[in-house]
Design goal:
With 141 residues, the protein is mostly beta strands. Helix content is 6%, strand content 38%.
């Protein structure tokens, strides 16, 4: 059986047409807010290490900035493009390797939600709002 999609002309004889809904493909570009749809879901994350930021008082709060992230649900699903996400350095230390600046990494993780309760969130007017992050679980080879 052949599957062919003819968006404007209809089906040719002997072919079955599938709508974008049936193909699980949409024309919507997924963004950071769509991480809410993947909460508690295992995902594959790819991104580039752009910056390390040391905490002035507590070493366990050192952070790593990943940019140009592509987050894809496992086993299959639509990818979400995210401009940047901050991770705690200790999350990668638990995986056995701390990536270097400029390196592109791939890892499996789980999407979680959290409330913004401090830092610059008060100044920006986003105090006590929900945001989403990814907890690294293991590196992907």
């Amino acid at each position: 059986m052949f599957f062919k999609f003819y968006p404007f002309t209809g089906a040719a004889p002997g072919y079955i047409t599938l709508s974008p809904h049936e193909l699980y493909v949409t024309s919507i570009i997924r963004r950071r807010d769509d991480l809410r749809l993947l909460e508690k879901t295992r995902v594959l994350v790819t991104g580039r290490i752009k910056e390390y930021r040391k905490h002035e008082k507590r070493k366990d709060l050192d952070t790593i900035l990943l940019v140009n992230l592509i987050i894809t649900p496992i086993p299959i699903g639509e990818s979400i493009a995210v401009e940047h996400l901050w991770f705690l350095r200790r999350q990668f230390k638990k995986l056995g390797h701390i990536p270097v600046q400029g390196e592109r990494i791939r890892f499996f993780g789980e999407v979680y939600s959290y409330r913004r309760l401090g830092g610059k969130s008060v100044d920006r007017g986003i105090f006590n709002t929900t945001d989403y992050g990814v907890k690294p679980i293991e590196y992907a080879n």
